[in-house]
Amino acid sequence: MSAARWRNPVVKQWGLMLTALCMAVVASSLGGLFWRLDMSLYDAALPTGPAPTDVVIVAIDDASIAELGRWPWRRALHAALLDRLRSMGARAVALDLLLTEPDTEYPEGDAALAAAMQAGPPTVLPLLVEIPGPGRPMRERLPIPPLAQASAGIGHAHLELDRDGVVRSVFLAEGIGAPHWLHFAAVLLDSIPGASPVALGGARHPDLPGAPAVWVRDHQIMVPFLGRPGSFPQVSYVDVLRGAVDDSAIRGKLVLVGATAQGIGDAYTTPRSGEGRAMAGVEITANVLQALRNGSEIRPVGAWTAASIGVIVVALSALCLLLLAPWQSLLAVTGVGLATAAGSVMALRHGGWWWPPTASLAAIAVIYPLWSWRRLAVTQAFLENEFKLLANERFPLLSGLPTPASTSAPVDFVEQRIDLLRTATERLRGVRRLFAETIGSLPDATILVDETGRIVLANHAAAALFGAPDPRDLENTSVDSQLHARVQTDDSRFASLSALAPCTVEAALAESSRHVLIRAVPFRVRAGERIGTILALADITELRAAQSERDDVLRFLSHDMKSPASSLLGLAQLQRDPGRALPPRELSARLELLAQRLLTLVDGFVALARAGSTDPRAFDTFDVCDAIRDAYDEVWASARAHNNSINAVLSEEAIMVHGDRQMLARAVVNLLSNALKFSGPGAEIDLGCRQSGNEVVIQVADHGPGIAPDSASMLFQRFSRGLHRGESDPGGAGLGLAFVRVVAEKHRGRAWVEAGEGYGAIFCLSLPAAPHPAS
């Protein structure tokens, strides 16, 4: 993100909001503001699993109390139980009984129990922490010395009660002044012969005070309870004593002996208590034992780590709000929230880590409505300002548009703004329609191009020019590709019209002989910022034709008509000199020749001009053979005078065309006169007319020397005179064949010359055939 964007007021407000929310997340994470919600999520997401088959609980249950008498029992019974467990093949035993006082009534019981413990299997005992009244120090009370010496280890069996009274965690190491006592379950695992020492994990607490009178705890783990109370295999204490339990239930297993009967044992609420009764302390120890065995203990992340993760989550949500559209940001923030909750659950279930996500989820829940409110406030302020500006705008041609300065909406604030926006939008639509219709009604091809060179608006003339069925087909296309495909020019500015605007370039259409004049004008907003270019393509074909015709007329007047006029002037000057004056007969002949030539030029030029200005709407349908016969009759006398013959081969049936009969007859006269001019005396001229499909072709063929190849392409141009092979210039202004070409084009046909076997030149005039009129 650029420095300029960071200075934007919107980004500054976003930064302030993000900072405030991050501080709130940190404070909530460190202070445990959402602790209960986090623990509810933890309890619901805690994974379950099958209990191990090599751990069994010997329960001091209600049935045992009923048969063996009220608690506490004589220690000789415990000795007998250990002897029975040894004979059944128990691997190790955790005797979860407080044996800190000697049995004064049956002192032999202590010795028997110590002997049983020494005989095996390895047996571990718990210690008791005595918390006396005020002013008295805390004490660690160990089992009586004979039992402590006979045990395989001593550990603490304390649990951690959370603020809601639920047991979720234990400390693996505790003690007065230093955490030197391992948990009861860890001591049991260490007592197994050949076992490696248990690796202590969990959250560390190195900052706890270490004064001699202070109970210090370390290595906190959250217990992954495998299921509800009763999930571990249990056998009754009295059944083991009576031999009612099969040896296979004990052999090779870790045995935990503890009270489960009501009133004599400790029972606690756990995350699984919602699924059943409270869980006995000996079963909680079994869950800790299993967690230490397979390394599945749950490790809570530190408070600062949790806060840091929360800050990252909130920052990601805030970034989505800043960069994405509202609906996109809603989806993104919702996705981040779901991913946050799912990530916490997945880390708990599959990674053994617990990160409380509620503080982050609360911030995510707040951030979207908070930023949406801010967006709404900014939008409202913007609309208010724009409404005021729009109310002051003048639209002379759209005076009937409603004014956004007032509203007839209800009292509701949002409804009022919606009504104002609706009114403003109606005004803008009217302006856009006016603009689009103005562009569309222009006679010249006009297109509006944005700064990237893409067409954003075009009229019907532009669509016709570029061969598009609809102007909208040109939108979002490249103007350069459209122009270069259909326009050709040698002007170097043509490659960058948009960048060089304003400028004017003349070009020719690639698929026709038409010419266009391209004007590029920059399009700017009121502030002067350029936002695009307007290109206007004016068809100047008629203008160029008029200029060419003007040049031809000037040449005709300056050369062809000037020549006989100059000759007449020369004769007049010559006659004023008696010594050089011509005889009357010769003078008369020369005057007649020059006058005839001048008259021919004028007549041909006038006929050509009339042909060019003839309106095709005045055409009639007639038999073209009649027009050819008229032409034949007109030149017959001239042909006979030169001993030439015209062989006319015409159809007996009518060949109908739609056009001007006199013009066509004169065109045929010109072709015949041209053939007679270049044919010698006694030569034959072939005249024919045929219909081929929808085309009627008139042919005049002479038996002269033919047309020079370099002159054939110019024969039908105005004031152009081609020469037959080996012939000298026969004279003429070059208007006869030009007249033939104009007549052909007026009738939507064409004129050309070709060489034919046995002929000198064949001049052809084609016309569209017309249907026969209904009889």
Describe this protein's structure:
The chain is an alpha/beta fold and 775 residues long. The chain has six domains: 112 residues, no CATH class; 242 residues, no CATH class; 43 residues; 96 residues, Beta-Lactamase (2-Layer Sandwich); 74 residues, Helix Hairpins (Orthogonal Bundle), CATH 1.10.287; 152 residues, Histidine kinase-like ATPase, C-terminal domain (Heat Shock Protein 90). 45% of the residues lie in helices and 19% in strands. The protein has 24 helices and 29 strands. A six-stranded parallel beta sheet has the order 6-3-2-12-1-11. The chain has a six-stranded antiparallel beta sheet with strand order 18-17-22-21-20-19. A five-stranded mixed beta sheet has the order 24-26-27-29-28, with helices on one face. Strand 4 and strand 5 form a beta hairpin. Helix 12 runs antiparallel to helix 13. The longest helix has 34 residues. About 1% of the residues have low confidence.
Throw out a few tags for this protein:
single chain, alpha/beta, six-stranded parallel β-sheet, six-stranded antiparallel β-sheet, 24 helices, 45% helix, 19% strand, rod-shaped
Number of strands: 29
Question: What percent of the residues sit in helical stretches (DSSP H or I)?
Answer: 40-55%
Estimate the mean pLDDT confidence: 80
The Cα radius of gyration reads 57 Å
How many separate domains make up the residues?
Answer: 6
Total number of helices = 24
The major pleated sheet works out as: 6 strands, parallel
Beta percentage is 15-25%
| Low-confidence region ranges | 723-731
Q: Widest sheet: strand order?
A: 6-3-2-12-1-11
Rounded to the nearest angstrom, the distance between the terminal CA atoms is 85 Å
Question: Outline, from the CA principal axes?
Answer: rod-shaped
Helix/sheet category:
alpha/beta
